[in-house]
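Deliverable D4.2, example record:
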Amino acid sequence: MKKVDLNCDLGEGFGAYRMDMDGKIIKCITSANIACGYHASDPLIMDQTVQMALHAGVGLGAHPGYPDLMGFGRRNLQASPAEVQAYVTYQLGALHAFALARGGRLSHVKPHGAMYNMAVKDSSLAKAICAAIYQFDKDLILLGLFGSCMLAEAEKMGLSIAREVFADRAYEPDGTLVARTKPGAMIENEDLAVERVVRMVQEGCVQAIDGTDIAICADSICVHGDGPKALLFTQKIRMALEHAGIQIAPLAEVVG
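Output generated by the structure prediction step:
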């Protein structure tokens, strides 16, 4: 039986601004990528999200990004590799403290937004991210885009990797995600998105934005928890996968 992880970025509120779906979506997934205070979140939200994840039996993951609350971590910052390594280490330490205080431990790391996308092709940035993770805890799993520099550098360094695909994002012919600024970047049709997810897991391919099929490998599927239909969409994906005979399991079980 095929196994796949279902992950979601959570804890991305800040102060009075909350993501109201987190408590419901966390019941439908197997891995939570928790914002660490740089692109979103704050200490109280981090602690609450860690507690929710532990209560739901969901894998705890750090979701470090650039120090860019105003831009939600989606703006490309010209930071040096040394700065990026320090950013990631700092954020891992912050979330680890909350996990430890609540009797849990981190299982994986998924960089956020611009940091994630830039590390797809930038090997120096990818190395900095991987070095931070390896030095902090070499047993952590790095969750990243299939075919990316980041996963290649992680494997060279000896980190475990999980290859991520996106339920609601369009792909370029080279396997990268279509930039959010381009038309067609988001898959708006829920039924089409669900169909694409099942095909990615079962057949190992997806239709790119130009209509061609490209090879892909899915250890984990990312669903976004900040849309008005996020909960229903996540439930649909989970039901479709289970109906297709695919087991939903935490990252440690899928790649361990």
